[in-house]
Amino acid sequence: MKKFRCGDVVPGCTRAFTGSSDEILLAVAAHARADHGLSEVPAELVLQVRGAMVDA
C-alpha cells in the first residue's frame, strides 16, 4: 500500500491518494485532468508522482 499527496508535486493542492502504485497513478491521472486541466499526463509528471509515493 502506498500514499501520495498531490501537493508534493503541485504546490497548494491538498488531494491525497492511497492504494497500489497503479491505482494511485490512475486516480492521479483523472485528478490531473479534472482539477488541474491537463489533457494528458506527461511522462515527467508520472516520474515525479512515482518518486513522491511513500509507504502507507
Structure description:
With 56 residues, this protein is α+β, with helices and mostly antiparallel strands. Helices cover 46% and strands 18% of the residues. The chain contains two helices and three strands. The longest helix has 16 residues, at 21-36. The relative contact order is 0.27. The mean pLDDT is 96.
Write the SSE topology.
Layout: E1 2-5, E2 16-19, H1 21-36, H2 43-52, E3 54-55
Antiparallel strand pairs: 1-2, 1-3
Question: In brief, what are we looking at here?
Answer:
By secondary structure, the protein is of the alpha+beta class. The chain has helices at 21-36, 43-52; strands at residues 2-5, 16-19, 54-55.
Which percent band covers the strand fraction? 15-25%
Helix content: 40-55%
Structural class: alpha+beta
Strand order of the largest sheet: 2-1-3
Number of DSSP helical runs: 2
Helices and strands, in N-to-C order? EEHHE
Main β sheet profile: 3 strands, antiparallel
> Would you identify the regions where 5 or more consecutive residues have pLDDT less than 50?
none
Radius of gyration, in angstroms, nearest whole number:
10 Å
